[in-house]
Amino acid sequence: MGTKTKIAAAAAVVLVLLLAGGAYAYDSSHKDEIASGVTVAGVDVGGMTAEEAEAAVRRSLLKPLREPLEVSYDGETWRLPGERLKIHADVSAAVAEALAASQDGGLPTRLVRDLSGGSLDKAIGAEVSYSQPAINRFVRHVAAEIDREPRNAAVEPSGEALEVVASEAGRKVRDVRLTRELKAAVTDAAAPRTIVAAVHSTAPEVTTKEVAGRYPSYLTLDRSTFTLRLWEDLKLARTYTVAVGMEGLETPEGLYEIQAKEENPVWHVPESAWAGDLAGQTIPPGPSNPIKARWMAIYEGAGIHGTEETSSLGSAASHGCVRMAIPDVEELYDQVEVGTPIFIG
Q1: Are 183 and 69 in contact (CB under 8 A)?
Q2: Across the chain, which distance is largest between two alpha carbons, in Å?
Q3: Are 60 and 71 a contacting pair, CB within 8 Å?
Q4: Which residue, 56, 189, 230, 318, could crosslink 238 as a Cys pair with Cβ 3.0–4.6 Å?
Q5: What is the pLDDT of residue 163?
Q6: Which residues in 220-237 are b (16+ Cβ under 10 Å) and which e?
């Protein structure tokens, strides 16, 4: 080998060493930088140091996630503060993975990529954790505020009338769906922070159309006018003039029902001072028994019965019972069953 050839070879070796050293130096100077095209949690961190990348990811990812979540319904809003969610993401681990991925492929691969303006095209996620019990408690609270039991149709009686209270559908939060939507929002910075609660309707057991069928018969007694009314399917069918309890022995006010029925009843005389010597006795049907024709028990010895003392009708004259003319009590007896409501007002 000639001298010139040796010099050229040596120069080539030197050049290779210089290029290799330069490449190594270049690579070493960028070893703490994340390669272009790398994202962490959707944030482009290419060209950043680990410290810069962590700050960018926390700013872009965690700050929005720590904003409060809200649920709205029908003009009302409920808020779940971000601090209760205890949101956490292992950003450091994700950035470390990005940095490690940037070093993959060896020096030649990295050098060619960097010098040619190429990118790594690597997406790395950052796992977000949060307090699931906080979400569950929040959903229960919202549901308790929104949920409403259905209202059955009902009857509100007074001494002279029956008023039908219309049924009303209830509502119930679709809590499984709401929980799912909140969990999705708490981990997605781009998701809306306010969720409109979805509800479904719950039907009453007794609708307005059905309530009359539950009351084939109903009685109301207006003591002030001595009027007993019979209602059939909640419509007024008959009115009767009756006698009610005298002062001190008033016919009991309130809502009761027909507890028992008896034709030509026996009179079980109550242990009361007004009964005198008859107190505690049992009087069979007949002339000495003031309870004539029919008996419909109401409450603690008080009931509806026939009387021959028709002059007492339209007054407060009894010892607590409701007296009726015999034809009237016989007619009424056949129209009501045990269990028929009677409101005394």
Answers
A1: no
A2: 160
A3: no
A4: 230
A5: 95
A6: bbbbeebbbbbbeebeee
Task: Name residues whose C-beta falls within 8 Å of residue 116's C-beta, 6 or more positions apart in sequence.
Answer: none
> Tell me, what's the pLDDT at 102?
78
Residues 6+ apart with CB under 8 A from 201: 169, 170, 171
Q: How far apart are CA 242 and CA 240, in angstroms?
A: 6
State residue 108 phi and psi, 5-degree precision. Answer: -60, -40
Which token pair is 128? Answer: 């977000």
Residues of the chain with pLDDT under 70: 1-31, 104-119, 275
pLDDT in tens, 94-147: 888 888 887 765 555 555 455 555 567 889 988 888 999 999 999 999 999 999
User: Which strand (E) or helix (H) includes residue 75?
Assistant: none
The burial of 298, by beta-carbon neighbours within 10 Å (0-12 exposed, 13-18 middle, 19 or more buried), is given as: buried
Cα 257 to the center of its chain, rounded Å: 35
Give the Cα separation of 81 and 219 in Å (integer): 57
pLDDT for the residue 26:
43
Please give the backbone phi and psi of residue 274, each rounded to the nearest 5 degrees, phi first.
-65, -20
pLDDT of the residue at 4: 62
Coil, helix or strand for 153?
coil
Do 250 and 300 meet the contact criterion of CB atoms below 8 Å apart?
A: no
How does DSSP classify residue 166? P
Whole-prediction pTM: 0.63
Bridge-based pairing state of the strands 69-73 and 194-196: parallel
- How many Cβ atoms are within 10 Å of 2's Cβ, its own excluded? 7
Tokens of 25: 């130096």
Rounded CA-CA distance 178/187 in Å is 15
* Tokens found for residue 190: 């781009």
Which parts of 102-193 are beta strand (E)? 122-124, 128-129, 154-157, 162-165, 170-173
Q: Which residues contact residue 104 at a Cβ distance below 8 angstroms, ignoring those fewer than 6 apart?
A: none
The Cα 58–Cα 264 span in angstroms is: 91
14: Cα separation from own chain's centroid = 81
